[in-house]
Amino acid sequence: MDKVVATPADAVAGISDGATLSVGGFGLCGIPSVLIAELHRRGVRDLEVVSNNCGVDDWGLGILLAARQIRRMVSSYVGENKEFARQYLEGELEVELTPQGTLAERLRAGGSGIPAFFTPTGVGSQVADGGLPWRYATDGTVAVASPAKEVRVFEHDGVEREYVLEHAIVADYGLVRAWKGDRHGNLVFNKSSRNFNPLAAMAGRITIAEVEQLVEPGEIDPDDVHLPGIYVHRVLPLTPEQAADKRIERRTVTAAPSTSDATADATTKES
After folding, report:
1. Which pTM was predicted?
2. Model pLDDT for residues 192-225, shown as the tens digit of each residue
3. What is the Cα–Cα distance from 118 to 145, expressed in whole angstroms?
4. What's the CATH code of the domain at 233?
């Protein structure tokens, strides 16, 4: 089946106000920026978004956030997005903060038909006991708090310990970016962009992939496929310009000193 669509508008057709989206990417690596931009252009609102983080103030999901198109976030990392923090603390945005590994497993479980699972992560904290602020009131009090979760004792490898019940996540739509994909929806991800993209794709009832390189079926070795096409419903090929349009969340290097600076520094040391 040829799953290729011609335009971003065709790719996101059907996504309406109030939809739940599972969105791939890790930081700003592998985010479906073209699909996000199209949702911004269309003005779809009241979205619930499940994603590791929410981009930055002017890129990725941060664009939807700034336009007040996101009602609720399920995330594990606030990151560099000051607007995310502001909306959350001022009661404009509901946020369910989830341990990163738990979030990954909730997405994987949703795509695997597993309704819930037990994990030791979060036992003895507000993750299990409840009371985490999901939404603040305008006066700074907690308007909505997380509920307490079921905790049970299991024996594993001869040791008894407590585990908390976590529920799977299933989204209306999954939005992902792949480095390479074929017309059948088989996808290959590049380096750290593989961290959450396959999981976000699995969790979507309808999954849309924007791909930097579109190849014909059979050109990807089956052993190289990171996500089989059974999870993908639409494939949007990107232009070279779209594929190259990427951002860095935080630069951790400094520019090399100029020749004049190096000469002046050497002169200072000699004197």
Report:
1. 0.89
2. 999 999 999 999 999 999 999 999 999 999 999 9
3. 21
4. 3.40.1080.10
